Amino acid sequence: MHTSEGFVPGLDGVIAAKTEISFLDVDREKIVIRGEDLIELAKDKTYFDVVHLLLEGCLPSHEEKKSLEDKIKNFCSLPEAVLPLFKLLPKGMHPMDGMRTAISLLAGYDPELENRSHQENKLRAYKLLGQLPFITVNSYFATAGKEIVSPDKNLSYSANFLYMITGKKPSDLEVEIFDQLLLLYSEHEMPNSTFASRVIASTNSDMYGALTGAISSLKGHLHGGANEAVMYMLLEVDSVDAFKALIRHKLQNKEKIMGFGHRVYMRKMDPRATITKEALRKLCARDNDYTLLEMCEAGEEMMREEKGLYPNLDYYAAPVYWKLGIPIPLYTPIFFSARTAGLTSHIIEQHDNNRIFRPRVDYTGKSY
User: Fold this and answer.
1) Which CATH number do you get for residue 313?
2) Does residue 145 sit within a domain?
3) What is the pTM of this model?
4) Less Cβ crowding at N or C end of the chain, within 10 Å?
């Protein structure tokens, strides 16, 4: 009978790959992206700085960043034959499922689909980053029974993304905060969705297939879907006292409080949550209404005292999305859209230095 004394449930702490892309240095509270600290980047860099860093290996000059954004914006449209897909998406379907379907369909329109070269994969990644705002927003609108919207190429990438969602030109503050959210969600080492994408890519499957697997992973409430759950919880009440009572009730019933705890950040606050907490403060100041911030801070204090748990990125990102006027079903799709920069980097790295994943099991069945 085959057994393994090295079995670790959930592969907790198991090294699954060597990578030059990113690393979570918990002891030093750093999210390292190709040698750069993501939290420091979030203070004065933009999403496209990090896209360039992930896919080109270095931070761009001003000219390189502008050239990259222009290049990606030129990929903002989908093949005409793909557009009828959105009308076929069932009403009420989660937009993540619509996105998964659209990305899978795009594979059929890639004339170089079987080309796994580094350069072709990188071009593919840029095309997908350009197309994803359209796919993201219209997967939601189609499944909500609304009209398909078109991009405005006169706006920046992040401004257009937000404009397509809300239907109004965003303010500078709104663009700054939305772009910062995209940056913070762009890459995070080896979460479930990234691992799923690398496992699929290791079979020499194409980038679309690997992303389709990743989006299925990210949809789960224990991964990307947590941000939606956080906002629904916040909307159950309308005051700090009521929110504290709600959390106390959930704890007494042994319910999981979404937005708290992380497999890696077990004894510290997710450093990305510190950034989004300040973003929420700015939006509350704009509206002269600090209710959501005060509710979240009260919940943060309770969970630290009662359970020794700290907020992850989703806890404060959810009310930031809400303050930006973004519908809740779009929270996880936007997460995926932003994370595609990191996911495609991992897929490219896997294809460039491949060995198929083929783990073993600890057999607990009948004796033989």
Assistant:
1) 1.10.230.10
2) yes
3) 0.94
4) C
